[in-house]
Amino acid sequence: MEYLSVTDAQQCILESVKTLGAEPVRLEQSLGRVLAEDVRANRDLPPYDVSAMDGYALRSADLAKVPVSLEIIEDIRAGDMPDKQIRSGQCARIMTGAPLPQGADAVIRVEDTLAAPGDHVQINVAVKSGNDIRVRGEGMRTGAVVLTAGTEITPGVTGVLATVKRAQVQVYRRPRVAVLSTGNELEGLADPVDPDKIPNSNSYALMAQLQALGIEPELLGIARDDPAELEEYLRRGLGFDVLLVSGGTSVGVHDYVRPTIETLGVQMKFWRVAMKPGHPVAFGVLPGNADGTSKDTIFFGLPGNPVSSMVCFEQFVAPALRRMMGHGRVYRRTIAVRLTHKLKHQPGRTEFVRVTLAKQQDGYAATSTGAQGSGMLLSMAQADGLMVVPADSAGLAAGEQVTVQLLDGTVFQEDVGI
Ligand code: AMP
Ligand code: MG
């Protein structure tokens, strides 16, 4: 099999992965989920014309000459209904959100007025008809779709859902994901330190990448490089919606993952991608039963090298999981930035370089975290993003514009920036 390009591999994945079914969730538990239904307004908002300011509701025609003194005939608070009509020479004291009385066509804010003797107020500036009035339905209209299926529930969306009184909403289900590490050399997190072993970091880095997507995975543990033991673990993993296996996917004689998973019925779609780090990455599907009694299981075989595992997760696993959860936006945000130094690159494979980002006057500048070995996990710990070096690039010059995928932890900054 040929090496696939990164983008062909991503396309293959998105063509093979289906959005999961919907389930109801309480509004209080819905942050980060994706709406599986269109949501409509259940009333006009505001329900009638209301004041946008604390001030006075009046007839704008009365302000042909200012200053002018108007008689205050009523006090209208938010929650009150006015019961008097405003006639020429009159006004009503009105609070923000309170309904506009009959006869009034404008509001003037209190700051543009002066108290006057008796029940009067002096208006100092003229305003046009409609001034500081929120018109009925300007926020939303009964029956109008205010949120569409596929919308991620952010705090702003939560506010809208509460406004339209949705105490419960339909969201897409989150996949159940199993994580399995393989390798005789691996030492578990709770095991005593053995200088001859390699600590199992991949299970936990993958767990954290999943948690960052809102998924709580099941860690299946460590399988030895033994076909029978591996088969037992893989069987268990194939009971989930998604199985991530780290290590053992390469072409070494003890890399049993691919042959074993194929005997268990997984149809392998690809196992080689022209990328660096991470080319021994495998993707396959175990089809569900035609009668719908079982669902597809998605399988990813990730490279054992810790950086490769994480980079492949970002490129392939995250988009697949986000598609399953109903997101329209499945890829990480990319930004165009300037590279601070030159970078060597042999044409052939798409390279993902760990970079830090520094804010400059005209945008951001990217700098490599240093040596880019696929086992150098500290580079992932330092990185703000992954710089994408196109497969056909023959190297980059200092100052060149490059594309960086932003990693988690990049949304906040030290300086206020405004
Ligand atoms: P493999 O893909 O199985 O050939 O593994 C490649 C390299 O990644 C080896 O040096 C392994 O020691 C290392 N590796 C494999 N699995 C893990 C893991 N779960 N955590 C940390 N390193 C690993
Ligand atoms: Mg191995």
What gap, in angstroms, lies between the N and C termini?
Answer: 52 Å
Instruction: Give the overall shape, derived from the CA principal axes.
Output: elongated
Query: What would the average pLDDT be, to the nearest integer?
Result: 96
Instruction: Please give the largest β-sheet.
Output: 6 strands, mixed
Q: Beta-strand percentage?
A: 25-35%
Low-confidence stretches: none
Would you count the extended β strands for me?
26
Strand order within the widest beta sheet: 7-4-6-5-9-8
Helix content: 10-25%
Number of continuous helical runs: 7
What molecules are bound to this protein? adenosine monophosphate, magnesium ion
Helix and strand content put the structural class at alpha/beta
| Radius of gyration over all CA atoms, rounded | 31 Å
Oligomer category: single chain
Give an overview in words.
The protein is of the alpha/beta class and 418 residues long. It is 18% helix and 29% strand. It has a six-stranded mixed beta sheet with strand order 7-4-6-5-9-8, with no helix packed on it. It has a six-stranded mixed beta sheet with strand order 16-13-17-21-20-18, with helices on both faces. Helix 3 packs parallel to helix 6. It starts with 5 loop residues before the first helix and ends in a 12-residue tail after the last strand. The model has no long low-confidence stretch (mean pLDDT 96). It binds adenosine monophosphate and magnesium ion.
